[in-house]
Amino acid sequence: MSEINKKLGRPRSVESHQSILQATLALLAEIGFDAMIIEAIAARAGVGKTTIYRRYVSKEELVADAIENMREEVVIPNTGNLWGDIDALVENAAQITLSPLGRQTVAMIISSASSNSQFAQIYWAKYLQPRRQAFAIVLERAKARNEIQPEIDPDLVFDMMSGVMLYTLIFPPTTDSWEVHVRRCLNLVLQSAAV
Amino acid sequence: MSEINKKLGRPRSVESHQSILQATLALLAEIGFDAMIIEAIAARAGVGKTTIYRRYVSKEELVADAIENMREEVVIPNTGNLWGDIDALVENAAQITLSPLGRQTVAMIISSASSNSQFAQIYWAKYLQPRRQAFAIVLERAKARNEIQPEIDPDLVFDMMSGVMLYTLIFPPTTDSWEVHVRRCLNLVLQSAAV
DNA sequence: AATTTACGAAACGGTATCGTATCGAAATAC
DNA sequence: GTATTTCGATACGATACCGTTTCGTAAATT
Fold it and tell me: Taking the C-alpha atoms of A171, A173, A174 and A178 in order, what is their torsion angle to the nearest 10 degrees?
């Protein structure tokens, strides 16, 4: 069986493939989806254009694959109290959301949402779902410790806080630091049920 | 004095000017900032390219002017109770934020935020500030009626709810309708201080 | 060693768009 | 009636980028 899997001819280069994906994300962060051109991606990756066109039919397909391949391990913090856990989650979210890549990815998703929803779907599946689940676990633990009321809906809180962070991409808080602002929002959302 | 203001030669056409701005917004809504080309704007407006280039140096300048000229009167509702007022505000926000123009405007603002912040500034000044102020008035009235606690920060609530609505552009609520979702978020944010 | 497939630089035909120039006609002031 | 400025259709030179083709070289299998 393994003999059948052996391919005649020169094998595809894994290094080239990885370089292409990394170059794609780098340029997406720097100049955004529309401004990226295949030739620039190739140059950044140190490959030929034909090497890219052998793998992908279009820029859209390439970018979708690059996002899909973003490897981001979600660590579920367990500091023993709600705010310790949430601080860790927020810190992680800040590093990603507020980055140039995060910004341009979001812009791309919004702009293309009506014509091409795959970017939103991948972002949801690869980035948001795991964090949503981690967040829910943190809130369930907090409930068990009686730090918040049992009827708090973790998914709703997560979606609201995601919206809050998204908003700060465009309009950064003016009177507080980003961290203080996010904490005040969390307070407002969670304190409604605080014992 | 008025004689000095009289210009020799053919006056600029106000109709052409308005057509250009309207065509700009229409195409922005339909295809987004980057995909718009001057020739298409001219065709949609029914003017010549030279007519546009006489007024604007670049597409960016044109789009900034078009956004600046969006005339959107903010009506401050006064139904006598908090939820009546808020329903009216949310309804108005929905019509704008969830529109194709709203979506592409937001995408453009996010994508260009680091290189060209004028779009965000104009959006803030022309769209958000008036609504923020209207929202603050509505919440102050609610405080006077003892419908919410006095320490609620109207600006913080507004910013959070703006974030919530922005988020729904990418990830529409799945289990509830948009209106129900927004109401639940408002409940969470305001109910924390309900008497 | 022969064959097969991939790689990458370079060239290419084709299309798209920018921004300006031209020019006859129009709309004003004098 | 003359002068001035704008309008808009058209053309233009220039640049940008796409996606494919060519071809010598490399990396594998047979």
Answer: -130
ipTM of the complex as predicted: 0.83
Confidence category of residue A1, pLDDT binned at 50, 70, 90:
very low
Query: Which structure tokens are listed for A72?
Result: 């981001």
> How far, CA to CA in Å, does B39 sit from each of A15, B27, B42, B47, B69?
43, 11, 5, 9, 21
CA distances from B159 to A94, A173, B54, B124 (A): 17, 9, 39, 11
Verify that A54 and A91 share a domain, yes or no.
no
Domain of B18: which CATH number?
Answer: 1.10.10.60
The beta-carbon neighbor of B169 closest among A110, A185, A192 is A110
Distance A178 CA to C3 C1' (A): 62
Residue whose tokens read 């793998």 = A55
Number of H helices, E strands in chain B: 11, 0
Residue B38: CB less than 7 A from any atom in strand C: yes
| Residue in the structure block whose two tokens are 């509702």 | B77
Chain A residues with beta carbon closer than 8 angstroms to that of B110: 103, 106-107, 110, 169-170
| DSSP structure class, residue A80 | S
Residue B172 lies in a domain: yes
Instruction: Read off the CATH number of the domain in which B112 is found.
Output: 1.10.357.10
Dump pLDDT digits (tens) for B161-181: 999 998 998 888 988 999 899
Asked if the structure places residue B23 within a domain, the reply is yes
How many angstroms separate the CA atoms of A115 and B85, rounded? Answer: 35
Written as six digits, the tokens of B85 are 């007022």
Please report the pLDDT score of residue A195 as a whole number.
Answer: 38
